[in-house]
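Hi R.,

Here's the chain you asked about this morning:
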Amino acid sequence: MDIEFLKLILAYSLVAVFVFTAIVTSLSLVGWARFIDQDQQKTLFKVLIVEVVVVSVGFFANLLEFNPATAKHQIVAGAFSDRKQQFTTTLALARKKYEDGDLKNAYTLVNDLFRSSELAEYFPIRDLFILNGDIAKKRNFLVEAIESYGPALKLDPNNIEIMVNAGDVQRQLQNYEAAEKLYERAMSSQSQNWNVLNGYYNCLRRYAAFLADEYPKISDLKFQKASEMVSQMKSVSSDASQKRISDVAKGVLHWEWKRYDIARVTYQQLIDNYPEENRFKEDLAAILVEMKEYHEAKLLFAKLYNNEKQSNKVSWFVGSGYAEAASKDTSDKKELRIALDAGLLAISNKPDDPFSYYAVAMVYRKLGMDNDAVSYLRRAESQEASRDTNMHTYDKTRHLMYKKILREWGVKT
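And here is the predicted structure, written out as tokens:
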């Protein structure tokens, strides 16, 4: 047993005895406490005198050399030293098992050390990793975020929030398999957690779209599973915001899944429920273009364009969408000129977006201005080509479409 701990016990025991003796002796002297045998009172008084002498001598001579604060510090330090030694011993054992080829038990020991109280109590390393991951995620340092969330999840393997955040980062990095595993892990613990379901849905939707061209059957399975997540999201929504996001998720999912009938109905319901939200009208117009309902799409884009033009806040999406729809519909020259202005305004508002150049090129082609059409479509193709190193902005399908149209127009690519 630690010597300082023994000193602590001895000191407090002596104090207790001294206080008891002093109280009883004092009470007997004033007549409040009586002894059957008067010799007992005399003996107790002698004991008190001896205790006073010992304490006085001990105090002035510093015989005990005892400091409670120092003793406490040394006791805690001793306990930590013992636990540190245990930690070091276990680490050495894990290393020995690794060197002997016993990987399974070495792995178990190392993971136990990651979750040991020594790390949690004396070194808040888990919180440090989580905070660094959150900061890196906010700053869009995605690789660094993963490098922090990984160890944090080692230290706290049941933390749902870490799983969701790490899954979101992996999805943004297009590491869809890794993201899916994280969400499945979270689902096994909290299958009715709305944030988990929302993250899982987004992962599956993006994964399905990524696989659509080369692996359509697998893509369809991912879309189907994402649809199940959306249904669960709706059922567990706890407030109006979550319900709205769940409804939007359904529309976006079926749009990307090319289930246009469901997407169209869903977006119309969103427009009815949120009539002031232009985004839903813009998305519906884009869906109508993909459905080849060009006339209806043109009318909706035209209405959006006129409203935005009055407020001098024309978005690139509306301007270029109007131009594309007008070029594919049966439009007269007056309509085409208006649509061309809309497309050119879209380019001025967002000059680095290839789609706007494509939409303007299609209007020029419809107007018979072939040289301008080729010039703008070349610009669309070259801008899309320059994005091929950025997985977040590059659209391979559109890039191939631009090149195909140029070839159809007799232009070498």
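One quick note: Confidence is low (pLDDT under 50) at residues 59-64.

Cheers,
M.
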